[in-house]
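Notebook, bench 3.
Goal today: get a predicted structure for Cullin 3 from Kwoniella heveanensis BCC8398 so we can plan the truncation constructs. The sequence was checked against the plasmid map this morning, with no discrepancies at the termini. Length recorded as 809 residues. Pasting the sequence as submitted so the record is complete.
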Amino acid sequence: MAMSMGAARRGKPKIRPPKRPTANTPIKDTWAKLANAIREIQNHNASKLSYEEHYRYAYNMVLYKDGDQLYNGVKALVAEHLDRLAEENIVPTFPRSGGTRGAGKLGGGAEAIERAMEGDRFLKAVKAAWEDHTGSMRKIKDVLRYMDKGYSAAMNLPLIYDVGLTLFVSHIIRSTTHPIHTHLISTLLSQVQLEREGETITRSTVRECTDILMRLRTPEREGGKTVYVADFEPEFLRRSAEFYKLEAVDMLETGNAAQYLRNVERRLAEETDRTVHYLSTNTHPALQEILVANLLTPHLQTILDMPGSGLSTMVDSDRIPDLRRLYTLFLRVPDDVGKTRLRGGLRTDIEARGKAVNAGNVDRSEAGPSTLGQDDGDAEDDPKGKGKAKATASPAANALSSALRWVQDVLDLKDKFDSILEKAFQGDKQVQVSINEAFQSFINANPRAPEYLSLFIDENLKKGTKAKSDDEIESALEKTIVLFRFLHDKDKFERYYKNHLARRLLYGRSASDDSEREMVAKLKSEMGFQFTQKLEGMFTDMRVSTESANSFRNYNTRHGALPFDLNVNVLTASYWPQPIVATTTCTFSAVLQPAMETFQKYYDSRHSGRRLTWQGNLGTADVKVRFRNRSHDLNLSTHALVVLLLFEDVKSGESISYPEIKSATDLPDADLARTLQSLACAKFRVLTKIPKGRDINPSDRFEFNEAFTSPLARIKIMQVASKVETVKEREETQEMVDEERKHQVEACIVRVMKDRKQMTHNDLISEVAHQLAARFTPSMPLIKKRIEGLIDREYLERTSDMGSYRYLA
């Protein structure tokens, strides 16, 4: 039992602390033992040492006021160790190829592989020295813990571990003995550049070395920045700028904008990945700015204008991914410079396309009144002969086709850019503004845009050979409203639209009453009640006329039946366009007079104080005509009926001269010429012109064509007319528009002055222009001239300073 206990005591010897030094114990012996222990730690022999013993040595040195010797002695030992690490472990791994400070290509193949391997070996040596040093410093820090607490803190000195980091900077990273710094920065830069050129590097090694630089700091006198920020990052950014500046030049020489943008996108992604994986994420913003500044900012216009691959080519080919990439990258350029250039490029491109549309759809026919061509077409009565009728298109048909094609081309172009805006430019409102400005510019550069747009709407709203669904009509009208918003001269469009609507209503050509009213509702929503007031009045007249027709039939039944049916549209002169309600002379045949007188009595019995003026220029008639072989039902204009009735009692072979026809009908020459053309020179020639020819002359004679034949039982002979205005008609329209604008400008001036009482000259002109801009763009001379006119008529007067106007109630 005693042996057993004795054995137990011998197995657990008591650990005795080291003896406290006395005055007779030299401090140098204590330091010598401690210094030897530190060297053993640095030589990786710490396992042989007693922590308690050497902690006590450091404790005693601090306790007995030898902390300065201990602090400085440890610094010297650490510096000595670092110098040895540099000499023995790092210097031998210096890359033989040296460090390049330029941004030129490093070369590929075996040379690049060798450079990458050498750089990796060197960086690993630096990393190994760091790990050796920090490992030693952690153990030394533990031994000198009391020194950090009792001496360093009291003397306001860095802790020993921080001293070790500072010494690593001065003796390794920024060694004055060996060019480690130069090789380290150059090697890191070379590794990055090798990867940029497509070579493979060991990212983990680079990451470990940049981590070292991010943990180390420069002296306080240099700002106390990390070595990464102070030494590596500026050089890295400088080299990156040089590299991408040269790359931009090389890539632009390929002449492929899409490929160039793909490369920029790839580079931006690569550099983002690079900063995440082995550089500081704080470098990311500056690096991205450098890429943008060198790859994009100086070359924006070059990219947009690059022949065969720039913006125009991308739009032509609907390259949505390339356009989206273009937009996204241009947004990166600061101060909205990129978006501004893109908007300018889009506007230029659209205006060029619009100019081509304007030039490609010019009406060169300038069809006059003598032009042969049926108004509103005969095809609906001749589906089998459609191709033959179209084989030789008249100038009027060409003019109409040109007008419709212009609108369709503009709509197609708008659809194209709307799609690009949505799919590629993320519906950007500023880009949309530029697109709209470009469309507004080239649409208004075509002086006939209001007429063409109204013709297009007319073509979609009237009955025709191309049946359209309600959805198709609605889509077409919605698109035309978009173009309508671009028009400056909306008042001119209103005049054309009223004329076309009037013909559709009076000829019964509207495909859908709902579509007609929907279009007017859209215009009302855009322009207000006054713009569509007269259009709605036209619908009211047609509704009232329909109701009146039923009432007249009842009246006619009570007072004796007429020999034929009579349907009269009573139009309010103020609602309908002037060409419709303008008084035209026409002597109606005796056979028509009783019916007209009957309707006059009926109308007078229901209305007092109203005067009817009979208009035959837009009326139609159905009449059965017997020819030699068979009879045909003819649908023709009222004027044509009046002329045709003159031949009812003419014997076979006899003719009537032009002057005789004019005397009997009292039709104006222009109307008579069109009427005779439709009867004798158009597709269905029920009269024979002597001599033959296209034009009507006062010396011509006409006879009934008894030999006329046609496979159709019912034939439509519409008045010959050009749907597209001639030069003379456009001049007349412009004169009427100008006259109407004078009144509108004066009314606006009076309205503004009545509200403001007194205004300066410039303010008045500005306000009037602003208020009238919704209908048309008034010129400054026009406004000034109307102001003078109102002053002459004493609506306004000049103030004493002559710079303002005063309203006179």
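DSSP finds 32 helices and nine strands in the chain. Residues 109-143 form the longest helix (35 residues).
Flagging this for group meeting.
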